[in-house]
Amino acid sequence: MALTPAITPARALLDIITLLPGRAIPTNAQADKAMSDFLADIIALDLQHNRGKILTQDQLAEQIFRSRPLFKDYRSMIPYLRYQLRVAVEELSALDKTMRNKNGGALTFATLSEYGDFIRDYLFDLREILNILQQKVSGWTFFSGIKNPGVDSWEMFILANNLAYQSTVKSGVTLSHKPAQIASIFVLRQAMELRFERLVSVYPTDRKGKPPKLRHGFHQEFIAANSQLFLASGFEVKKLRHLYDWCSEIVHQAYQPYIWQTTMALRRAGNLLRARPLVTGQPWSIHNAVEIKDTEAMQTAYEEHFLASYGHGVWKMTREKPEALTPNWQPNMAFTTPKYRPVTNKPCVLRRACTRLAQLCRRCR
């Protein structure tokens, strides 16, 4: 007679948060034990695969936010999955603490159910990477089942409608979990892009009053190359590029990332977007995540960078107050230059031919 396989911590937790008809409601003690056992199991697997290695947040972000990582075989994929496992442990531990803080350190079934969609994502996302990391472990099992991370366009359409009209609903607004998770990355990318642009707050316009078509990451590249002008507390703006590019990938591909990638992305971007606490006797701003001591020098440097980097045209510059802590800012620093200035880089002699070729290519599509 075949033996019934043991119920793994992952399976036990999945059963707790998936309350099927006819099944008794779990007790608080059962919910607490299921979560504790699962977290302990994942921590042990991380210790096994990462061997207690100390990994900084910058090291982790550089790897887990890689855009479209490609691997020649399973073996070359293993280090990348180990980084994912470490972040999963850190973010899951933080979620466990959040849930327990609601009840004085204990975890109730009601709280666990409240975060059920998040927990379910952790279970299925971890299954995806652990099935590879544990493939040589004889008899190891997690649970059976898969998650489809993709999203149909109609789901995004429904979400667009929900977002547009939810203000007309007085209560009980609930967005679909998966597309809402994806949309949160859309909004996060927009927030980061705006903050990079507004840290500089210099706006070129041509003779028709139109702005230049800057490549993705133009402002972030300038900030990273001139980090001495942007004083960040506890993080480096240049090290947010991996996250910024990863957000762009989600925007264009519209798939649900690993749940821990989403929570780490929000936390890491918070270094740039959240305000720092008030310190008695020191200036404060809602935008004080970054301090710019010499706004004039920074904006002058950006104008020179733009004129040396952009391909063509003549431009006038409008300066505004940056979204940063700017202790030397004066209202007269906001102005528009009266004259247009030409770019300083030499135009490519093949630009006209390339433009003509691009036009021909569009006709052939």
Notes on the protein architecture:
This protein is mostly helical. The protein is built from 13 helices and six strands. It has helices spanning 9-17, 28-50, 57-64, 74-101, 109-114, 116-133, 153-165, 177-200, 218-225, 241-253, 259-273, 295-309, 351-364; strands spanning 202-205, 231-232, 290-291, 314-319, 335-336, 341-342. Strands 1, 4, 5 and 6 form a four-stranded antiparallel beta sheet that branches. Strands 2-3 form a two-stranded antiparallel ribbon. α1 packs antiparallel against α2. The radius of gyration is 25 Å and the shape is elongated. The mean pLDDT is 89.
Topology (elements, then pairings):
Blueprint: H1 9-17, H2 28-50, H3 57-64, H4 74-101, H5 109-114, H6 116-133, H7 153-165, H8 177-200, E1 202-205, H9 218-225, E2 231-232, H10 241-253, H11 259-273, E3 290-291, H12 295-309, E4 314-319, E5 335-336, E6 341-342, H13 351-364
Antiparallel strand pairs: 1-4, 2-3, 4-5, 4-6
Helix pairs in contact: 1-2, 2-4, 4-6, 4-11, 8-10, 8-11
Helix content: 40-55%
Which residue ranges are poorly predicted, with pLDDT under 50 across at least 5 consecutive positions?
A: none
Number of contiguous helices: 13
Biggest pleated-sheet summary: 4 strands, antiparallel
SSE pattern, N- to C-terminal: HHHHHHHHEHEHHEHEEEH
Share of β-strand residues = under 5%
Shape annotation: elongated
